[in-house]
Amino acid sequence: MSARETEQQPRHSDYSQRGCPVEASLELIGGKGKGAILFHLLEGTLRFNELQRRLEGISQRILTKQLRDLEECGLVHREVFAEVPPRVEYSLTPKGETLRPVILALMEWGKAHAFDILQVKNSA
């Protein structure tokens, strides 16, 4: 089985166990940069290069992969305009918009706790 096939397979075959809806959700929105992508798309439609500028440290390849994954899940809409040069815009779908309170809550939790926890973890 290739690495790509392994990435595409869900961690569990059944998400009915207690706590598994949390894991299922994290499987969809977790991953390098996905949370930040969703956060920036809360502001509205963005072009690929605008997203890339906002997401320092994420390569073009990773950003493309994560956007494809989010599009495949139905959380992000990709619109290609037949122009020269081609223009591609990304926005949240209605399903993606339902993550707004979750993403904003994660942002507030991060402000309150994550930086302190990471600082202690990194100094150990």
Report on the structure:
This protein has one domain (31-123): Winged helix-like DNA-binding domain superfamily/Winged helix DNA-binding domain (Arc Repressor Mutant, subunit A), CATH 1.10.10. The protein has seven helices and three strands; from the N terminus they run H-H-H-E-H-H-E-E-H-H. The protein is globular and about 50 Å long. The protein is mainly α. The protein has a three-stranded antiparallel β-sheet with strand order 1-3-2. Strand 2 (76-81) and strand 3 form a beta hairpin. The termini are far apart.
Set down the secondary structure blueprint.
Elements: H1 3-8, H2 20-29, H3 34-41, E1 46-47, H4 48-54, H5 60-72, E2 76-81, E3 87-92, H6 94-97, H7 100-123
Antiparallel strand pairs: 1-3, 2-3
Proportion of strand residues: 5-15%
Q: How many extended strands?
A: 3
Tertiary shape = globular
Can you tell me the CATH superfamily? Winged helix-like DNA-binding domain superfamily/Winged helix DNA-binding domain
**Count of spatially separate domains:** 1
Number of H- or I-type helical stretches: 7
Q: Report helical residue fraction.
A: 55-70%
Estimated structural class: mainly alpha
| C-alpha termini separation | 37 Å
* Averaged pLDDT: 87
CATH topology: Arc Repressor Mutant, subunit A
- Describe the biggest sheet? 3 strands, antiparallel
Regions with little confidence, pLDDT below 50 for 5+ residues:
1-6
**Topology order in helix (H) and strand (E) letters:** HHHEHHEEHH
Rounded to an integer in angstroms, the radius of gyration calculated over CA atoms is 16 Å
Q: What spatial order of strands do you see in the largest sheet?
A: 1-3-2
What is the level-2 CATH architecture name? Orthogonal Bundle
For this structure, what is the CATH class? Mainly Alpha
Domain HTH hxlR-type: 20-118
Organism: Hirschia litorea
Keywords: DNA-binding, Transcription, Transcription regulation
Protein name: Winged helix-turn-helix transcriptional regulator
